[in-house]
Amino acid sequence: MSVKHASVHAKWIIGRVIGTKMLKTAKVRVTRLVLDPYLLKYYNKRKTYFAHDALQQSTIGDIVLLKALPEARSKHVKHELVDIVHKVGRVVDPLTGKKVAGTEFVEPLTDLPLNLEEDTTLSEKLQELNISAVSSGADSPQIPTA
What we know:
Order of helices and strands: EEEEEEEEH
Distance between the termini: 93 Å
Strand order of the largest sheet: 1-2-3-5-4
Largest sheet: 5 strands, mixed, barrel
Helix content: under 10%
Number of strands: 8
Structural class: mainly beta
Radius of gyration: 28 Å
């Protein structure tokens, strides 16, 4: 009785899309670190996979998650694209939650509170924050004077 085994060792793989010219197929490069046993130093080892992208949703530069198929779709295509982990070019500012292109915001920052009055003094700002400019003796450690 013959048992059909998958020819792919890894079930789940994360890689970067390097080509999408083929119809419903993405070319994905996976980089992993390999230890050289003699030098005891790690180096990058790359392997290229062809993955079935049914919706043609990936673009060059995307970080994608691949899943091994139980049997190959064709001679080269042995994986399918499950998810786009990080879409290239969609950078979001962590403080504002707005999209950024380079150093400029794509969306206007209209809903953020801006303080245009710069003539307030430091003591007024500290009073707004309920912070006193002079620390009390109980909070600060005692410094012995000789």
